[in-house]
């Protein structure tokens, strides 16, 4: 099993394998057919309160570590995160899709690190 992340707005690639959207909200302006999503795992996304707090932060770069710590704690207690690990065992490759513009400071990166810490092979 290998996990990777990609921006949902980028064209799908044959190497993506099983494509899972990990955002709580559907990406703005994106048709479902164009997204080529195999599964929408919105339950694994940050909680609504944490997501709202993060999106309204004046300095996202300065608060990313705090956000990552809180989101990691949510993942530790989230059965959907464990289900995602199991999904990785069912597929050779799983690409986690996110809609954020920043490819470095986003919840999908934190999720990828959490998966790696729990034994999953990841591509960074």
From TrEMBL:
This is DUF488 family protein. PANTHER family: CYTOPLASMIC PROTEIN, CYTOPLASMIC PROTEIN-RELATED. Pfam families: DUF488-N3i.
């Amino acid at each position: 099993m290998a996990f990777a992340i990609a921006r949902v707005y980028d064209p799908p690639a044959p190497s993506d394998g099983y494509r899972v959207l990990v955002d709580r909200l559907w990406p703005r302006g994106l048709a479902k057919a164009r997204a080529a999503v195999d599964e929408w795992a919105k339950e694994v996304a940050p909680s609504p309160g944490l997501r709202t707090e993060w999106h309204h932060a004046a300095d996202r770069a300065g608060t990313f570590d705090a956000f990552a710590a809180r989101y990691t704690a949510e993942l530790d207690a989230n059965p959907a995160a464990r289900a995602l690990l199991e999904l990785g065992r069912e597929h050779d490759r799983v690409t986690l899709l996110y809609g954020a513009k920043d490819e470095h400071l986003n919840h999908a990166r934190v999720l990828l690190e959490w998966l790696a810490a729990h034994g999953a092979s990841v591509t960074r």
